[in-house]
Write a structure and sequence with these properties.
The protein is built from 15 helices and 13 strands. By secondary structure, the protein is an alpha/beta fold. Strands 5-4-3-2-1-6-8-7 form an eight-stranded mixed beta sheet, sandwiched between helices. Strand 4 and strand 5 form a beta hairpin. Helix 5 packs across helix 15 and helix 11 crosses helix 13. It is globular and about 55 Å long. Bound molecules: adenosine-5'-diphosphate. Adenosine-5'-diphosphate (ADP) binds next to helix 10 and helix 12.
Length: 398
């Protein structure tokens, strides 16, 4: 039976999934899911993996500098998978690649020219794209006979109407690819497909999805298709994130450049790594830490995060001409009843009424029965979207 490996590389992490693909017709079956954390950084990397039943298969810390890069992390993952499943026939590897630029609106087979093209988008997603591609390079070497397919976070948004695809700067920049791309597309695709299967009446309506994780964005779906996103050209725009700034007046960049004499690299570091929840709280990029801290700057960081979500909610509802469903997902969206409550507070004017009991219990539907807008919590699953693309690519090659 063919198997697929899914890889999702962050700046210092590598998520992986091992799937059985069966006869390539049905849903890929997840058998192992895992995560390598603290890659590089001179720290002790950590790997954890669970089986389909949630049983922990591996939970191990490595020595300092034993996992210096994503290639080594992948080699460790492969050693573990070979030990667990010596029978495995890895026929396909699916990669999450954050930026597909203007060219790629569908999952795409990785070939040397495609890899070269994708490397050109590294400056647009410096926290992710270089790691996505180094993972892909390592996998191409380790599994030369497997089909390797890239799944792009931008692809789901590639059919936005013109007004949501452009900035008001001279047109030559648009032609060069300076556009509003939008990200977290694999997550939004999962939510859209899940709604289609489980609540088709909601899927056909106007939906706003709030993907609130370490990276955070929001997306407006009309009949299941993305029509607007809070993220733009890079993964910096829109909502504030763990350590990214979110929407920023470009005048601030000019100020940093011209008045502070900062170099572009220094500015990149501030905007991607020192801003957002971390920058405002001076404490942490992690929502759990901020919620537990209870200090004034931590509270203010949370207030700003919530305020920008509420603002975006209004903007996306206007882009859609109304809203019938709000979905929360991502680590914060799925787990923090407190943030969900603050986002929905006083939103009766737009037809949202939260049921605080359902919200606290973490139920799937957290709106009241009378709420005009359905409010849902749906755990997202980017891995299955990648595994489906790997299956389809393999079936197409068959
Ligand atoms: P990534 O974008 O790296 O995939 P996740 O979707 O895993 O991130 O989300 C990570 C964020 O979710 C962190 O800020 C973390 O603190 C937050 N989070 C996870 N569980 C909880 C919880 N129970 N309450 C509040 N925040 C949580």
């Amino acid at each position: 039976m063919p198997h697929a490996l899914t890889l999702n590389a962050g700046s210092s992490s590598l998520k992986f999934g091992f799937f059985e693909l069966g006869d390539l017709q049905g849903e890929p079956q997840s058998r192992i899911l895992g995560l390598v954390e603290r890659i590089g950084q001179g720290e002790r990397a950590h790997i954890k993996a669970k089986g389909a039943d949630g049983q922990v298969l591996l939970d191990q810390e490595y020595g300092r500098n034993h996992v210096p890069d994503h290639g080594t992390a992948l080699a460790r993952v492969v050693d573990f998978l070979r030990e667990q499943r010596p029978d495995a026939r890895l026929a396909a590897v699916g990669h999450r690649v954050v930026h597909g630029g203007p060219d790629y609106a569908e999952p795409t087979r990785l070939t040397p020219p495609v890899m070269d093209r994708l490397a050109q988008f590294e400056p647009l997603a410096p926290l992710h794209q270089p790691h996505n591609l180094s993972g892909a390079r390592a996998a191409l070497e380790l599994f030369p006979d497997a089909i390797q397919v890239a799944c792009f976070d931008t692809a789901f948004h590639r059919h936005h109407p013109w007004v949501n695809d452009t900035f008001a700067i001279p047109r030559k920049f648009y032609d060069q690819g300076v556009r509003r791309y939008g990200f977290h597309g694999l997550s939004y695709q999962y939510i859209s497909e899940t709604l289609e299967k489980t609540a088709p009446h909601l899927h056909s309506g106007r939906t706003i999805v709030a993907h609130l994780g370490n990276g955070a964005s929001m997306c407006a779906l009309m009949g299941g298709r993305s029509v607007a996103s809070s993220m733009g050209f890079s993964a910096l725009d829109g909502l504030p994130m763990g350590s990214r700034c979110g929407q920023l007046d470009p005048g601030v960049l000019l100020y940093m450049l011209m008045n502070e004499g900062m170099t572009p690299k220094e500015i990149e570091d501030v905007l991607y790594r020192q801003s957002g929840l971390l920058g405002l709280s001076g404490l942490s990029n992690d929502m759990r830490t901020l919620e537990a801290a209870g200090t004034e700057p931590a509270r203010e960081a949370i207030d700003y995060f919530v305020f920008r979500i509420r603002r975006e909610l209004g903007a996306l509802a206007a882009a859609l001409g109304g809203v019938s469903t709000l979905v929360f997902c991502g680590g914060i969206g799925e787990n923090s009843a407190h943030i969900r409550e603050k986002v929905c507070e006083g939103m009766g004017w737009i037809g949202m009424e939260l049921d605080t009991g359902r919200n606290l219990r973490g139920e799937r539907i957290i709106s009241t029965d009378l709420s005009r807008v359905r409010i849902l919590v749906i755990p997202t699953n980017e891995e299955i979207v990648i595994a489906r693309a790997a299956r389809d690519s393999l079936a197409g090659a068959g």
